[in-house]
Write a structure and sequence with these properties.
336 residues, alpha/beta, TIM Barrel, 8-stranded parallel barrel, two-stranded antiparallel ribbon, 37% helix, Aldo/keto reductase family protein
C-alpha cells in the first residue's frame, strides 16, 4: 500500500480507502462487513470513510465495532454530515450549526473515538449561510473533535467560496469527495483545476462505477444474483445509468488492456483514477473480504500514457464529463 498527502497539508492517507456506503448496516450482514474491514487492515489500508446517513447511522456503528482494538493513531477515520438522520425531523438535515454540532457527537459515539480525522460536508447546503457552516467547522477543529475539514460534491465556485471563508476562520479545506471513474469524469473540467489552485485533493468514490467496471455485468444478460444491480435496498438505483448494452460492451473491450498490465478490470478501474495527480485516494467498497484484497492491488500501479489513450478510445462517448452534473448532486429542496 502506498500513501499520499491529502490536500495542502501534512496529513497522509492510504491511496486506497475502505468505504462502507450501501454495504455495512444495509446490504450485507455485519459479520461480513467487519471481516471486510479487517481485510482492509491486513493489506495496509489505514483510511476508512463512512457517513452518518449511511443506513441511518448503522454503518458508523459497524465501522466503529470493526476498528475496535486498533491503535487509533494509526488510522484515518473520515465521516460526513448533511443527510437526514434519526427521526428525520426538520433540523435533522443540512449544514446548520445545530445539525453539525449534534451530528458530530453522534458520529463520535458510534465510531468509538474522541475525534475524526476528516469531517466532510456531504453536500452543499443551499439553505444555510455558508458562513454559519464554516464557523461551525472552525469551532469543531478548535475543540479537537475534528482534525481536518473536507466537503463532498461541491462545485468549483463552492470550493472557492468555502476555502476563502475557512482561511478567514483559521483553518483550511483540504479535500473534496466526488464521484469519479473512467465513465464519470465530470470533475475534470472545473473542479480539479479549482482544487489544484486551492490546495484541495479529491477523495473519489465509485471508482468502479458501482461495479460496472468489474466486467461482471454482460450485455444481453441478466445481472448476477446477489450483485448490486439486483439490490432493492438502494444499490440497484445507483447502477441503473450504466446498465445499457452499449456501455457494457465497451467495458468488456477494456479487458485486453487490463491483461497487458496483469490486472483485473476492477484493479484497472481503481488504478485509472489514481493516475490523476489531484486524486489522493480512491474509495473501494466490498461485500466480501476477497474483493478488498484484490482491489487494493491497484495501489502503486502506473498506467502508461498510450494505454490511457486506448482506454479513452474504447469508452468514447459512453463517458459523462459535463461539469454541470456536479451542481445537480446537491438537493435544491429540503429532504426533511
Amino acid at each position: 500500500m502506498e500513501y499520499r498527502y491529502l490536500g495542502k497539508s501534512g496529513f497522509k492517507i492510504s491511496e486506497i480507502t475502505y468505504g462502507n456506503w450501501v454495504t455495512a448496516g444495509s446490504q450485507i450482514e455485519n459479520e461480513r462487513a467487519i471481516a471486510s474491514v479487517h481485510a482492509a487492515l491486513d493489506v495496509g489500508i489505514t483510511t476508512f470513510d463512512t457517513a452518518d446517513v449511511y443506513a441511518n447511522t448503522k454503518a458508523e456503528t459497524v465501522l466503529g465495532e470493526a476498528l475496535k482494538g486498533q491503535r487509533r493513531q494509526s488510522l484515518e477515520i473520515f465521516t460526513k454530515v448533511f443527510g437526514p438522520t434519526g427521526p428525520k425531523g426538520h433540523n435533522d438535515v443540512g449544514l446548520s450549526r445545530k445539525h453539525i454540532m449534534e451530528s458530530i457527537d453522534g458520529s463520535l459515539e458510534r465510531l468509538g473515538t474522541d475525534y475524526v480525522d476528516l469531517y466532510q460536508a456531504h453536500r452543499f447546503d443551499h439553505f444555510t449561510p455558508l458562513e454559519e457552516t464554516m464557523q461551525a467547522f472552525a469551532d469543531l477543529v478548535r475543540t479537537g473533535k475534528v482534525l481536518y475539514v473536507g466537503v463532498s460534491e461541491w462545485t468549483a465556485q463552492q470550493l472557492r467560496d468555502g476555502a476563502a471563508l475557512a482561511k478567514e476562520l483559521g483553518f483550511q479545506l483540504i479535500s473534496n469527495q466526488p464521484q469519479y471513474s473512467m465513465l464519470w469524469r465530470v470533475i475534470e473540467g472545473e473542479v480539479v483545476p479549482a482544487s489544484e489552485e486551492l490546495g484541495i485533493s479529491q477523495v473519489v468514490w465509485s471508482p468502479i462505477a458501482q461495479g460496472v467496471l468489474t466486467g461482471k455485468y454482460r450485455p444481453g444478460e441478466q445481472p448476477p444474483e446477489g450483485s448490486r444491480a439486483t439490490d432493492e435496498n438502494g444499490g440497484k438505483n445507483f447502477i441503473q445509468r450504466w446498465m445499457q448494452d452499449d456501455v457494457l460492451e465497451r467495458v468488456q473491450e477494456l479487458k485486453p488492456i487490463a491483461d497487458e498490465l496483469d490486472l483485473s478490470l476492477a484493479q484497472l478501474a481503481v488504478a485509472w483514477t489514481l493516475q490523476n495527480d489531484n486524486v489522493a485516494t480512491a474509495i473501494i467498497g466490498a461485500s466480501r473480504p476477497e474483493q478488498v484484497t484484490e482491489n487494493a492491488k491497484a495501489s502503486g500501479v502506473s498506467i502508461p500514457a498510450e494505454l490511457m489513450e486506448r482506454i479513452d478510445g474504447v469508452l468514447g462517448d459512453a463517458v459523462i464529463s459535463d461539469p454541470a452534473r456536479t451542481e445537480d448532486s446537491s438537493p435544491k429542496q429540503r429532504e426533511a
